[in-house]
Amino acid sequence: MSMDRSTSHEPLAPARIIVWDRLVRIFHWGLVLAVTFAAATGFLFPPNWLDIHVISGAFVGCLIVFRVVWGWIGSTYARFRSFPVSLALLRQHVADIAAGGGTRHLGHNQFGGLMVYGLLAILALLTITGIVTLGGVVKQGPLAFATSFATGQSARQIHEILAIVTLLMLAAHLAGVAFESWRSGENLVRAMITGRKAAPSGPVEPLATARPFLAAAILTMLAALVLTATIHLSDLPARGVPPVALDPTYAKECGSCHLAYPPSLAGAATWSAVMADLANHFGENASLDISTTTQLENWLQANSAEHWDTRAANAFRIANPADPQRITATASWVRLHQDVPDAVFKSAKVGGKSSCSACHRDAAIGRFDPQQISIPREARP
User: Fold this and answer.
1) Which of 112, 134, 225, 273 is most open to solvent, judged by the fewest CB atoms within 10 Å of its CB?
2) What is the per-residue pLDDT across 218-239, written as a single tens digit (0 to 9) for each?
3) Which domains, from first to last, does the chain contain?
């Protein structure tokens, strides 16, 4: 005689309810992906991955804006009011954990809520300092028209510190998730994948009505405003990057033997020293008539590094006293190329340290953008 399942004494699985809505879960795992790409391209990958780093950072910024909007008009446990910042509640939570008990939280507990606010704040600061760095140092993006190199460098230092702090916070977050999963018996990682948690034995707080269409309208309006402003501002001339055309005589006389180096790569004193010693121009006689020499020297000095605010101009305007005419002898050039093996420079495809255009596709215009770095495959060791 078979036993009726309804009379079986097998324990029933606890009921599970939706806590994290689909948009919260998409936000969470999208943020994981974006931060991972941003960290990898910022800490591990070479400079020519900058575009991926910028895209990842922009995606992080978009996700933060969405989360702020959804925190006000989203589902119950997505709303900020479901995990308020309260010193009294935090103390109570710590006391409960120390006593080995504590109230079970369907949404974020006090530590989880603080981590949400902290990560949103620091990722927002990372996004802002990244935009400022991009504008000042690389002279790209919506703030390039107004940001000096010095400001960009300061923002870059802050950006790097914030990135390290973010990694430490994420490590603490993972440790907290592991601890709380063990303490509560609830697999929090699985809950963020499925959205479901075990239903409480007692009453559940009234559910708030999510307003996805209002959120979509707000986000669409913000996206249109930000995108329009970004495109318009990015089209403005970058600060400290004057639109200087290469002097035809300079291009002819100097470009016939080597790259006609942009005048922004050296200071006025360096160019004067170079033009005064053309008879012994790095071991060769490159003498010109007095009129042409004077013309070229005046043009070089008028457009020297002192008149530019690019990264290259700021880096190379300080000459090496022991070898003042050679750009590749400057401390900045040596530092920026310290990871490039000598075999690369000695290869036939590159042809020496002075062959900038072999690896920098925009060397002729003096930009030296990270995205334009491409070491020839044949030159790689």
Assistant:
1) 225
2) 999 999 999 999 999 999 999 9
3) 14-199+208-234 (1.20.950.20), 248-379 (no CATH)
